[in-house]
Specification:
Layout: H1 3-13, H2 18-25, H3 29-36, H4 44-53, H5 58-62, E1 78-82, E2 87-91, E3 102-117, E4 123-137, E5 140-145, E6 149-153, E7 158-173
Length: about 180
């Protein structure tokens, strides 16, 4: 671990100059500069003083939890082809079921493809990327085409269908897939 780089990162996040951090920790600006470039090492007591000035503890400072992935590409997607309902689902955020929302890319094939879903507690949102869909909620049918979005509470029997095929960005809260 590069202690200096991590101290610099915390200092910058707090909006402090090297001189301001040095003043707060009762150290010299030169010492902070050398420390951030890993040219010197602080004593435990000095490190604890610096970290206190930066609003963190020694335990948090040395915690090496890996950074959470923020951006996902096609290589990260999980895909399921459902031949019975003639649709394709791509989970575009892996392990999203642990979150409050779970976005997927839903592709409905032409000629009678559907995406069935039973009533459950939650909400669903869709954005039509291409084609058009019919949204069946209870005994009502709503239409949405490319560039349009839809949102509904999932307390009634609901499903999507498409006569000519469609691709949708789909978000379900809580995850139901």
């Amino acid at each position: 671990m590069e202690i200096g780089a991590k101290i610099r990162e915390l200092r910058v996040l707090k909006g402090l100059t090297q001189e301001e951090l040095a003043d707060r920790a009762e150290l010299s600006k030169g010492f902070i500069s050398q420390l951030e470039r890993d040219l010197t090492s602080p004593s435990i007591a000095t490190l604890m003083d610096i970290l206190q000035c930066l609003g963190t503890s020694i335990g948090e400072f040395f915690n090496e939890t890996p950074e959470e992935q923020i951006v996902f590409g096609k290589q990260d997607y999980f895909e399921k082809n459902d031949s019975e309902y003639k649709n394709n689902i791509k989970w575009i955020i892996p392990n999203a079921q642990k979150n409050q929302m779970e976005p997927i890319l839903l592709t409905l094939e032409a000629d009678g493809s559907t995406y069935p879903d039973s009533p459950h507690e939650g909400e669903e949102f869709g954005y039509v990327l291409s084609g058009s869909v019919s949204i069946h909620i209870g005994n009502k049918i709503y239409k949405a085409k490319k560039g349009e979005s839809f949102y509904y509470v999932t307390d009634k029997q609901h499903y999507l269908s498409s006569r000519n095929g469609a691709s949708l960005l789909w978000v379900s809260v809580p995850p139901s897939f």
